[in-house]
Design a protein that fits this description.
about 220 residues, alpha/beta, Rossmann fold, 2 domains, 6-stranded mixed sheet, 8 helices, about 25% strand, elongated, 4pyrrol_syn_uPrphyn_synt_sf, 4pyrrol_synth_uPrphyn_synth, uroporphyrinogen-III synthase activity
Length: about 220
């Protein structure tokens, strides 16, 4: 039986999908996210949110009504779905931050943006926008903390964020495990560590699971 480690706790239906396909599944959260107190001052005409954690933090703010009607630019369809649930209007969706920056620079360079981000975030998007003179400010709305755990041997490991990769590698070593990543940004955190990487073709937990099942079905 193929042994799979998920580096985040899955929803029951997500885990069941793997179990039904004949996998043995172990789950552990390798990062913890916590909403931070923040002020909704000087929010620009457009909002950028690249994670569900940022959406949840913003949606819980007592003054969220002041910004809910502003157009939102986001990464990932799951992030877009969550924004829709909270009553936001999604203007653009991209598969990753680099693609989102390209869309903004090409079509919205004259507009102003506020980026709601975590304390650990990659530089691609804000750097690209600033280099193209797109007006941008940033509000830190959540923090990510590593929660590394020493784990035994598995056939496959599912990764969902660069910080999750870093937390895992801080106390574990990859040898011949297959690594299944939610997107290119997460996969890039495994560069020079392993070549055994499969990347989901849609940045979602479900698609990462589908890629895992398909890989072992065809091998």
């Amino acid at each position: 039986m193929t042994r799979v480690l998920s580096t985040k706790i899955l929803k029951p239906n997500q885990k069941q999908f793997l179990l039904n396909a004949g996998f043995s599944v172990v789950e552990a959260d390798f990062i913890r996210t916590t909403a931070l107190p923040f002020q909704l001052h000087d929010v620009a005409d457009n909002l950028i949110l690249t994670s569900q954690n940022a959406v949840n933090a913003l949606a819980e703010h007592p003054e969220v009504q002041d910004v809910r009607r502003k157009p939102v630019f986001c990464v990932g369809h799951q992030t877009a779905d969550l924004l829709d649930e909270f009553g936001f209007t999604v203007q653009e969706i991209a598969d990753n931050a680099k693609e989102l920056a390209e869309v903004i620079i090409k079509n919205y360079a004259a507009d102003t943006f506020t980026f709601f981000a975590g304390n650990i975030r990659r530089n691609e998007l804000p750097l690209a926008l600033m280099e193209s003179d797109v007006e941008l400010n940033e509000i830190e709305v959540y923090e990510t903390e590593p929660t590394p755990q020493k784990i035994g041997k598995f056939d496959a490991v599912l990764f969902f964020s660069p910080s999750g990769v870093q937390s895992f590698l801080s106390v574990n070593t990859l040898t011949d495990e297959m690594c299944f990543c939610i997107g290119n940004t997460t996969a890039s955190a495994l560069e020079k560590i392993t070549d055994s990487i499969v990347i989901a073709n849609q940045p979602s937990v479900e698609n990462t699971i589908i890629q895992t099942i398909n890989y072992y079905k065809s091998s």
